[in-house]
């Protein structure tokens, strides 16, 4: 039942095209990634839209629910932005905000026995894999990168609770990438929910962020971007 629910949710949201931007005028911030970023877009409350409101400036949003990193297999979602690297477009970006990898681990290996998939995303020393390659490309183009982790559900159960251990290892590797590159910031979301049992930061599915959760993520991103 859990898998059917997840697939239905992705089917409903993956078909949503990315908006041209949150706010008006040329943007210096680009958001790419999966449903962590794209959720609540129909309500005008996605992470990018909340970030635009927080900073008072336009934010370009190319994130798509269901997006994956291309690890050489069949993408878990369809469309021009189905893989996160395809969402990135060269431009006059000061910042590129991104997440990703969760769908590869959930749908590629069920969050269990995921060593090969995790290594293909980011190696243990954070020097190889789809994520370091994309970050290196963005950095070479002149932008700084903020890479977020994923939400956790302390004090209550989630349909993806079993993804916690592999998610923790992904966080550790992203932190190593942060340490290697002064222009890349890893934003851990492990403690975004301040009180165990507080479900207000999650949508009803207890997987994705609620509008409050998206706003809280955006506030943390804004604190990094502000001079």
UniProtKB/TrEMBL annotation:
Classification via PROSITE patterns: PROKAR_LIPOPROTEIN
GO MF: hydrolase activity, acting on ester bonds
Signal peptide span: 1-22
This protein's record includes keyword Hydrolase: yes
Superkingdom field: Bacteria
One Pfam family in the UniProt entry: Lipase_GDSL_2
Family matches, as InterPro entries: SGNH_hydro (IPR013830), SGNH_hydro_sf (IPR036514)
Domain SGNH hydrolase-type esterase: 31-215
Keywords linked to the UniProt accession: Hydrolase, Signal
SUPFAM superfamilies tied to this protein: SGNH hydrolase
Name of this chain's protein: SGNH/GDSL hydrolase family protein
Organism: Paracoccus zhejiangensis
Lineage: Bacteria, Pseudomonadati, Pseudomonadota, Alphaproteobacteria, Rhodobacterales
